[in-house]
Amino acid sequence: MYTHQKQVFTSGTPIQEAKKAIIMIHGRGGSAEDIASLSRHLHLDGMAIYAPQATRHSWYPYSFLAPVEENQPALDSALDSIDQVVNDLVEAGITTENIYFLGFSQGACLTLEYTARHAKRYGGIIALTGGLIGETLATDNYQGDFAGTPVFISTGNPDPHVPVSRVEESVSILEDLNASVTSRIYPGRMHTISPDEINLVNQHIL
């Protein structure tokens, strides 16, 4: 098993000049630079971009649907890595209302798990093919109030990694925490990011 060392790729507007920031979280096998490159398709003008890098290019070793203990200590270390980035942004003067999150696949799952465990008013949350983590969802872990934070969640039907049922469970939990959720299920779509998702994210979240 493994844990994560702090490595963060930054781009976009320098943090000293930015009033908003986005944390972009890559998927299994991806990299911080890869996910940050998505920024050229998104409405991120004036935002600082922070993209943490996972050890071994994977935030946790097994499926997000595996028992949580099988993905430890990597999973807890991954959640702590995101928390460190959030704290860095707050210390730099970015309020949580102006912090956005975006993740793809494994990074989308980590995005949702972190924010649901620390629910508060964020700028927005984008989970491109992802759901909350665990064989069964431990709802006691999810605390706080999103206070209307706009959230986008998607998956394909079928998707080889993220079943529709888990997306639906996740939407229900996030809405119970007062998130404003937009979700899309794409029939027959491959495990990828579609132009329609990009358009919806730009319209509803960014």
TrEMBL record:
It comes from Siphonobacter curvatus. Belongs to the AB hydrolase superfamily. AB hydrolase 2 family. Residues 14-205 form the Phospholipase/carboxylesterase/thioesterase domain. GO terms for cellular component: cytoplasm. InterPro entries: AB_hydrolase_fold, LYPA1-2/EST-like, PLipase/COase/thioEstase. It comes from the Bacteria. Pfam families: Abhydrolase_2. The keyword Hydrolase applies. One of its GO terms (molecular function) is carboxylic ester hydrolase activity. This is Phospholipase. SUPFAM superfamilies: alpha/beta-Hydrolases. Gene3D superfamilies: alpha/beta hydrolase. Keywords: Hydrolase.
